[in-house]
Amino acid sequence: MAENTRETFEPNIVAFLCNWCSYAGADLAGTSRIHYPSNVKVVRVMCTGRVNPLFVMNALQQGADGVLVSGCHPGDCHYMQGNYYARRRFTLMRRFLEYLGVEPARVRMSWVSASEGSKWKEVVEEVVEGVKAVGPMDQFKRRQLNW
Amino acid sequence: MADKILKKDKAAEALKELSKFRLFAPAKSDDVVLFRQIEDPAEACLDYANSTVPPKKVVFPQTETLFRFKLGNPELREKNVEEEGTTVIFGLRPCDARAMSIVDNLFSWDYEDPYYLKRRELTTLVGMACVTPPSVNCFCASVGGEPFGTENLDLLLVDMGEEYLVKVLTDKGGKLAETIGSFMENAPEGAAAKAEELAGAAREALSRSIDTSGIEAKLPALWDSPLWKEVSAACLGCGICTYLCPTCHCFDIQDEVEDAEGRRCRMWDSCMFREYTLHASGHNPRPTRKERTRNRISHKYSYFPGKFGVIACVGCGRCVNLCPVNIDILEILGKVVEA
Amino acid sequence: MVDQAKLREVAREVISREDVRLLIGYRPGTYGFRARPAFVESAEQVEELVFTPACVSNLASYLVLEEKPPLPRGAEPDNRKVAVMVKGCDSRALVQQMVEKAYERDHLVVLGIPCSGVVDMARVEARFPGVLSAGSIIREGDDFVLSFDGKTEKVPAAELLADKCKRCRYPTPLVSDIMLDDEVERFAEDDFSDIAELEGKSVEEKWAYWAEKFSRCIRCYSCRNVCPMCYCEDCILDRLKPVWMRRSVDISENTAFHISRAYHLAGRCIQCGECARVCPVDIPLMELNRKFYKDVEELYDYEPGLSTEATPLLSTFSVEDREDFIL
Q1: What average pLDDT is seen over chain C?
Q2: C145, β-bridge pairs
Q3: Taking the domains of chain C in order of start, what are their residue ranges?
Q4: Structural domain boundaries in chain A
Q5: pLDDT, greater one: B99 or B49
Q6: CB-based contacts of C194: which residues, under 8 Å, 6+ apart?
Q7: How far apart are the first and last CA of chain A?
Q8: Contact C226, B238 (CB under 8 A)
């Protein structure tokens, strides 16, 4: 396997997208043939409010270099309030992980609506750039420690 | 082999020499003393009371791989403990060394545990006599130990002020002593007598004790006694008393899978946890902390001696010192005697 | 200082009430300066009750720790009240438990103890090692007076005080039925400078710091069990489906454990400091909890455990919540 230098490092990014906005937005980017980095692995959830903050921790543990949580713009949530709850949770989680020594570039959040295919591309590009800049996640990644 | 003297200013050099083996010695992290693998002798802290986590973790690691497996490959790759190589635990307290001989009973009883026993075979134990008892809650003399005890040790160091008296107790110890022979001198006459004196003083200095005779027989009769509710009322159900006990040896076995590879590993478990006895049906034969506390005490002072003829407690005092709510095994035993 | 005779008298009255089944207080420990929880079920037992600066435990934990195994057929559960002694910090745990509807207010009889600070037992024992016979600690003005083995020593309070007490904002219980002493004025303030200092370090420095601390963890779960706010019947740490964190002890799982534990206390930790006190390997757990406390206060102007009318922080939101990091 090629060595992960800064230049060749292709980060693994897990994206939790809400069914109603961001997933549809990403879908629109696809159907509109907008090219965006293929580093994101999408997990569709019904609402960002369903994303347990520990998912972030778990993804980083299991080999993600970055995590993106994306949902409807404030006020547009299909379930009225799910994204507001998520906003609080991830604000706290992100600041906490930074406090432990996990670069904030690894934990991102965005609002992407179903019509924002091009915004999805910009978001992904920015997230990928950010994670590339900080390199592979090696703080508490689950390795085969002492195996 | 005759007794030797290791001057304290030579101790670092001797440790350096020993670090060619897998060397564990007490080291300080903040204010906590733990046995750690030492590469630089400066890390070691020999002027210590006792380690918070007993050195049992060297021969019985908190998490250890038994074997590894791969998807689509019927071959199991067993962990080769031999690869770990010669191991030296430097500066452990006589009670912790004695604890290992107690745990040996369990791991070589109906089934000989190859991992544990191999590691024991590879490990040389260099003890550090307790010139002053490490804590007010030490009671080793009540359960068959001694501050200067030599049981199960290969070498025993006695702090004589400026120097350590090194007593060679086994062939294994003799071999290890040879590797650091150039740092040591022959012990002068009278050194052994002085050590004997110190040993006597150390025994005198033990402030707590318990008469254990009869406890083994008495405990099963106290199964329904109200005393268990009383002594366990404050128990939080954490694992401090068991994880930090040098003789506690319960483990759990788990499979861990990473992609197409996995391992079967075992890890410490504690009878003070709810899930320890929880059945798949949801039934729990030890439903509350009362039953768990009863089991902890009974196992150490009745079931284990019933099976192996030795109390599974060495009186190191850790469970008393570190219990967050001051549950005191000596107080409990006192109540058992009285009951 | 609380008058010990008065404390016992009140306790006797309370436990003699027909609607009270249990009184949780403090009694002297088995050695040295220690004090430990006492569980009083009859008036005869009140004689052993004390309150001194050695009474460090947060007894609110026991209200939610009680195991309720299935009752024998036909038996009725004992639903009488529980009386509990609380210091200022401990009382906030009661408030927060009630905010979370762990039980109803009339389940409790709260004996409030205005508190001018408890000792850090590790500091006491380091300073006066080897004390086996019962010793006592009392507060006299700005000093602690320690009596043991026929000696009496006076030590400036600041040298032995627990860290949490040096920044205590609420020394007088916020909820009580019977106050056992006069109110104590707020004597300290919390500026979170310790947390700010750590925040100011580089990412690498922070991780190096925490990796060393977490690598010591033996996962005894004492921090979880002692916590008055950790009372889920089915903790995610114990759950097997899914396995949130593995049982194996290594830096990855230990970090996951500490993240989970601290996150579950976000907006709930009332800063009693019990987790850090009980940790056998001295992991500074309060530095994790206090980070959340600081953030929650800064971002949402929220302090847990102050009013039973409050809404749990993460069960609510404001449309105005900050979102400067969101793309």
Answers
A1: 93
A2: C138, C154
A3: 4-179, 193-315
A4: 13-134
A5: B99
A6: C287, C290
A7: 21
A8: yes
Q: Calculate the average pLDDT of chain A.
A: 91
Is the per-residue pLDDT at B165 higher than 90?
yes
Residue C19: CB atoms within 10 Å: 10
Q: Contact C256/A87, CB-based, under 8 Å?
A: no
Which residues in chain B have their CB less than 8 angstroms from residue A146's CB?
63-65
Q: Where are the domains of chain B?
A: 4-205, 215-338
Using CB atoms within 10 A of its CB, is residue B21 exposed (0-12), middle (13-18) or buried (19+)?
middle
Instruction: Give the largest Cα separation in chain B, rounded.
Output: 68
CA distance A127 to B302: 62
Inter-chain touch A100–C206, beta carbons under 8 Å: yes
Single-letter amino acid, residue B254: Q
Rg (C-alpha) for chain A, rounded Å, is 15
Q: How far apart are CA B149 and CA B137, in angstroms?
A: 17
Structure tokens that stand for B204 in this block: 């005198």
Give the closest-approach CA distance of B197 to chain A in angstroms: 45
Could you read off the pLDDT of B5-47 as tens digits, one per residue? Answer: 999 999 999 999 999 999 999 999 888 999 999 988 888 998 8
Asked if the bond preceding C242 is cis, omega within 30° of 0, the reply is yes
**What is the CB neighbour count within 10 angstroms for residue A82?**
22
E strand map for C20-87: 20-28, 35-40, 81-86
Residue in the structure block whose two tokens are 């249990």: C22
φ, ψ (nearest 5 deg) of residue A145: -70, 130
CATH topology of domain A13-134: Rossmann fold (3.40.50)
Q: Residue holding tokens 């007794």?
A: B3
Strand order in the sheet with C151-156: C136-140, C143-148, C151-156
State yes or no: pLDDT of B259 exceeds 70: yes
Q: How far apart are CA B337 and CA B335, in angstroms?
A: 5
Chain C positions touching A81 (Cβ under 8 A) are: 317
CB–CB contact C220 B136 (8 Å): no
Q: How far is CA B62 from the centre of its chain?
A: 13
Whole-number pLDDT of residue C327: 85
The Cα B331–Cα C36 span in angstroms is 13
Cα A28-A34-A36 angle, rounded to 5 deg: 105
Q: Binning pLDDT at 50, 70 and 90, where does residue C11 land?
A: very high
Q: What is the pLDDT along chain A (147 residues), one digit of tens a residue?
A: 445 566 689 999 999 999 999 999 999 999 999 999 999 999 999 999 999 999 999 999 998 999 999 999 999 999 999 999 999 999 999 999 999 999 999 999 999 999 999 999 999 999 999 999 999 998 999 876 666
Q: If DSSP codes are grouped into helix, strand and coil, which group holds residue C85?
A: strand
Read off the tokens for B202.
Answer: 């150390």
How many residues does the structure list for chain B? 339
Say if the Cβ atoms of A58 and C244 lie within 8 Å: yes
Complete DSSP assignment for C111-128:
EE---S--B-HHHHHHHS
Q: Which residues, 6+ apart, have CB-to-CB distance to C200 below 8 Å? A: none
Contact residues for A6 (Cβ-Cβ < 8 A; gap 6+): A132, A135
Residue B159 and residue B136: Cα distance in Å, rounded?
A: 19
Please count the other Cβ atoms lying within 10 Å of the Cβ belonging to residue C149. Answer: 11
Q: Any CB–CB contact under 8 A between A146 and chain B?
A: yes
Please indicate whether, in this complex, the C-beta atoms of C255 and A87 are within 8 angstroms of each other: no
pLDDT digits (tens, 9 = 90+) for C291-301: 999 999 999 99
> What is the residue-wise DSSP string for B113-132?
-HHHHHHHHHEEEEEE--SS
B199-219: pLDDT as tens digits: 999 999 998 999 999 999 999
Taking only the tens place, the pLDDT of each residue in C236-270 is: 888 888 888 898 999 999 999 999 999 999 999 99
Q: How confident is the model at residue C287 (pLDDT cuts 50, 70, 90)?
A: very high
Angle at B190 between CA B186 and CA B192, to 5 degrees: 75
